[in-house]
Amino acid sequence: MSLQSYRLSRAALACSLALACAPRSGAPSRARAYADAMQRRRTVRDFSPEPIPEEVLVDAIRAASSAPSGAHQQPWTFVVVSDAELKRRIRAAAEQEEHKSYAGRMSDEWLAALAPLGTDEHKPHLTVAPHLIVVFAQAWGWRDEPDGTRRRVKHYYVDESVGIAVGMLLSALHLAGLATLTHTPSPMAFLREVLGRPENERAYVVIPVGYPADGAQVPDLRRKGVEDVMIRM
Questions:
Q1: Whole-angstrom Cα distance, residue 139 to residue 157?
Q2: pTM for the full predicted model
Q3: Strand, helix or coil for residue 153
Q4: To the nearest 10°, the Cα dihedral for 79, 80, 82, 88?
Q5: Residue that wins the pLDDT comparison between 23 and 127
């Protein structure tokens, strides 16, 4: 295949992008609408047990899996956990590790940084939320060769790639009207065992997903303004 035939024409590429065929004059309003919607996103720890339609989760993961990745290797696996017993096992193991962290692993400075969030070793959201999405990062994968063998292939920029995909997943879930929380018990090796994942995968983050509970509250925290994080040069 020649480079010329491999590349899409400019027009074909533009029309393959989600909004590229929309009038360019509408770009500012679309950007503002998206930014305003994302400013309403908050981390939630109080969930309703009401189930979520499966197609919502499927489409959110489909959006996340469109993320850019190093060498286009797509080094991610999204495990949707809805089974009550699996969620119970995950919570028990996570709380065991969190107890060790809060009781001695974390420095006083770290604990002070967490204090405004009101967190502790107890993680009821892991069983109350109707679904957990456990994202795994793949350090390497397999490639089928023409001779019928399989060859191990190293993945590159794994953390960066999976991090981008997780951000897109959180965005998609929020825009679908769902609440989320990013949870990273340390260490997370137990998740691979509980969920039966292969040796090339390691847990990256646990995301409880659901509707917020009636009366759910979040800390009154301020986000940095764009003037605090953006530099023009």
A1: 9
A2: 0.89
A3: strand
A4: 40
A5: 127
